[in-house]
């Protein structure tokens, strides 16, 4: 589409609690984020064919891509 805004994806690091053994600690996952109006579009792509997409509300785009808590 002509005139569509670009999504500038940047890589972010995912961290899982290493103390718990389980499926999450065995996955290799790449995550990206892109600024969108009122927040971030977050996309994950895993080595097991699992992926996801989410919206993180952050109107001022203050999130640094690290832990939210």
Annotate the secondary structure layout.
Layout: E1 10-12, H1 23-26, E2 29-36, E3 39-46, E4 51-57
Antiparallel strand pairs: 1-2, 2-3, 3-4
How would you describe what is shown here?
The chain has 69 residues and is mainly beta. It has one helix and four strands; from the N terminus they run βαβββ. The chain is 6% helix and 38% strand. It has a four-stranded antiparallel sheet with strand order 1-2-3-4, with no helix packed on it. β3 and β4 form a beta hairpin. The protein starts with 9 loop residues before the first strand and ends in a 12-residue tail after the last strand.
Question: In order across it, which strands form the biggest sheet?
Answer: 1-2-3-4
Q: Main β-sheet: number of strands, strand sense, barrel status?
A: 4 strands, antiparallel
Low-confidence stretches: none
Distance between the termini: 38 Å
Mean pLDDT: 79
Rg, Å, rounded = 14 Å
| Structural class based on helices, strands and sheet pairing | mainly beta
Number of strands: 4
Helical fraction equals under 10%
What order do the helices and strands follow? Answer: EHEEE
Strand content is 35-45%
Gross geometry? globular
Tally of separate helices: 1
